[in-house]
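W.,

You were right to be curious about this one. When I first looked at the sequence I had no strong expectations either way, so I just let the prediction run and decided to look at it fresh. Below is the sequence, 114 residues in total, followed by the output.
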Amino acid sequence: QVQLVESGGGLVQPGGSLRLSCAASGYIFSDYAMGWYRQAPGKQRESVASITTSGRTNYVDSVKGRFTISRDNAKNTVYLQMNSLKPEDTAVYYCKSYVSGSSWGQGTQVTVSS
C-alpha cells in the first residue's frame, strides 16, 4: 500500500550537483520520518540521511556538508540535494519511510564520473 517513487538521478561530473526526489503515497506522510539510503556496487545498502517529522536531520559522515535532506509535507515528497559530488557517491539511491510495512521503491541511479 505504501508507495515510494524515487527520481532525479543521472550522470554527473565530479563536483556537480543533483537533486533527488521521492514521492510517497498510501499513508499520512507528515506523521513519519523519512530517509535516503544508497547501495553502491558490491556494497551493502547504507543510510545516507534522515529527517524527522519535526525537521531534524542526520547524515552519514561522508556526506555531511555536501548533502541536504528536506521534506515538503504538502507534496508528500522528500528531497536529497547532493552537491560537490564525488565518484564515491555513485550508487542506486532509495528513499525510505519509517511507517510500518513500508518497502523499497525502484531506486534512482546516480553516477558520478568524468
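Here's what jumped out at me. The mean pLDDT is 97. And, maybe more interesting for your project: The beta strands are 3-7, 10-12, 18-25, 34-39, 46-51, 57-59, 67-72, 77-82, 91-97, 108-112.

Coffee later to discuss?

I.
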